[in-house]
Amino acid sequence: MCGSFVMQTSPAVQSLPAANQATAVGVHVQSESLLELEVPGLAESIRQACLGEADLVPYRVRQALNQALDRASTDRLVSTIMSLPYSAQTYTRHLLYADPAGMFTVVALRWDPTQGSPVHAHYTWCAYRVLSGVLSESHFEYDRSVEQAYLFNRVTRAAGQSVCGHGGMDFIHRLHNDGDQTVVSIHVYGIDAARMSTHVNRMVTVSLRAETPSQAPGK
């Protein structure tokens, strides 16, 4: 998994370097998770969403994000994320909440200009919402005959837009900040926090075959 990862757990908050490094660079103490502090009730709403029918979980989680993140709570969360340590070389993840039962993990991602993710699928269901700024999202289709993916669509995701998907090769994408302003987004994954660095993103090889991206409205 690419990107600098700042782990924020409750009650201890750990600051970590890039996800493929093991040495902590700093630790400070916080009595509650950032999600509970800034958006009270959202963690419980996500937990309830996870208890529903499996096929509907990512859609219910996406709905929970949309319902809980009003303008005031979004502004508070963005302000907090922007005050935290970040990497100038790659996008930075901040762990906002780790479900005690391991059903899900909530992270905030900070994307400075030109920063982006690799092309990837997910091992688990996921849902995300853009909190500030505009992200570019590229979609890829997997060609099993050559075990590569090719670009078929590109859209923009403005603040307030949200997306969700199931794990597997039917949802392959890349997120990137093409603008000149920092972007903040919130992501929920159906996995425990201890495996965030190894069991979320599934890297995908991209085919060089030419495709013309179509434009589609944001979700």
Secondary-structure map:
Layout: E1 4-6, E2 12-15, E3 26-29, H1 34-38, H2 42-50, H3 57-68, H4 71-82, E4 92-98, E5 105-111, E6 120-122, E7 126-132, E8 134-143, E9 148-158, E10 162-165, E11 168-176, E12 183-189, E13 201-203
Parallel strand pairs: 1-4
Antiparallel strand pairs: 2-3, 4-5, 5-12, 6-11, 6-13, 7-10, 7-12, 8-9, 8-11
Helix pairs in contact: 2-3
In words, what does this structure look like?
The protein is α+β, with helices and mostly antiparallel strands. The protein has a single domain, classed as Jelly Rolls. Helix content is 17%, strand content 36%. It has a 6-stranded mixed β-sheet with strand order 1-4-5-12-7-10. β4 and β5 form a beta hairpin. The longest helix has 12 residues, at 57-68. The chain is globular. The two termini are 25 Å apart. Mean pLDDT is 84; it is low at 7-31 and 210-219.
Determine the CATH superfamily.
Jelly Rolls
So how many helices? 4
Shape: globular
Using the CA coordinates, give the radius of gyration: 17 Å
Largest sheet: spatial strand order? 1-4-5-12-7-10
CATH class, please?
Mainly Beta
- Give the strand tally: 13
CATH architecture grouping:
Sandwich
Estimated structural class:
alpha+beta
Assign a percent range to the helix content.
10-25%
Strand content: 35-45%
User: For the residues shown, what is the average pLDDT?
Assistant: 84
Write out key terms for the chains shown.
alpha+beta; 219 residues; 6-stranded mixed β-sheet; 5-stranded antiparallel β-sheet; Jelly Rolls
